[in-house]
Amino acid sequence: MKVYSLIATTAIAALALAGCNKENAAPATDPDAGTKTITVSISGASLTKAATGGEDPYTENHNFTKIDLYFTTANDVVVLHRTIEAGDSDEWTNIIDATKGVRYVGLTGVSRVYVVANGGEIEVPANGENMNDILLEMKNYAATADQDVIPFIGGDNDITPIQDEIATDFTGTTIDPIPGDPSTVEEGQQYYTAAVSIRPVISRLEIDKISVQTTGETEQIEGSTIDASYNGRKFKVVWENFKPVLGGIYMSNFYAQWNPLPAQTAATGLFATPTGMSGIANGAWVSLDTDLNVAGLAYYSNWNGSSYDQLFTYTQTAEGNNTVYFNGAGETPKCVPFNFLVNYDVHETAPDIASNPIINKEARNHPTFHFQFQYTGDNGADPDYTYKAQELIEGEWQDLDENEDVLLYQALVGDFALAVTPGNIYYANVVQFMEGDEVVDIQPGKIYKMDSVLITPANLTTGTVAPAEEYNVIVKVKVVDFDTINVTPVFE
After folding, report:
1. Could you tell me if 217 and 191 lie in one domain?
2. Helix (DSSP H) and strand (DSSP E) numbers for the chain
């Protein structure tokens, strides 16, 4: 099949509908009554367990292989479903050109219009069926799936009657969608304009680079932040040889399905973050449904049957005090991606996708990401990994005696002393994104680019955790249109 690339300047596609030129008839009181002639035009939207070398990133150039049009009654019963395959036909080339369009004549009983581009695994409602038969299931949109399977959806449930139309403005092509029907262009009695914005049904995280800070130190710690009795004293913690095995990256707090049409429904089937140390075992989630608990969708891991091996085939490299575990930069960029559903109002026509209403926004959960590390030492941490607290005394940093003031010492190094856990497993949990100094509010149709993740020993916990109100590490991310945003992760 020939595929056409639609390069978008924004994250939406505009759909314009207009009538043909003839004597104008007043719109019927019954929104479904009368014969209508509707012109449609669409502009494109920018949109196994083993070691991995990374996946291909999505781009702002989106390939549409087909477009499904649904003309429905006011009750969203399908009057006419029409599929337009990508190719050289006049119908295809004109419908994706917002300056032209395709004129569909002789449509009766039509009050609403819906558009689905690239339906993928969607079960398509037939004529006489209801639009709520469309169900989006996350199992069909793994991050390793081709970008062209991601559906773009939109609709107009309140098309606007018009009383004046200029025939010379129409330069597209005319289609009689119901061959054999006696309707003609001249017999269309009512003229309407509709506006439909189609948007991708998923958003996406792409991690471009992952490193650990092998050797480092904290910023200066004011003694008064520990206890008033230490006011005026200054401390820091230094560490060396932090280099655990990165065995997996997992996603939780995501939705399994969404019924987008015609009502404004919320996504359902939330897989909430399991807390504690038992949520993940043998390289997969313990309690996630089988059809979602697969590599490339809910996780990437490299479990060898008894322990974890390094997740990436990438050769680790030193970069200053850091060790780079994965770097997707190069002539053929790679990334570590995760897709997730973000429900939105499919009827919204705002040109700015960020202003598009998100259904049940307050109750909607932010996906959480878990970097899983394993140490090979007998007692938890690798014996080569060391840390110590120091105090600034007369302009020089001097080691603190851990036995002199045990409470002070433990308060300083507590985040760096890794407790013994089953299997010596630890997690760095990303529970929020930041863009600059602002918290990122997850939006539909976005690609969140995590340019670099840097993990320190202080980020590790003994289990997966749900989002909390306080965070101790920030990682920045950038957002792209599909739309792309550079963001930084916030660790619990």
Report:
1. no
2. 2, 37
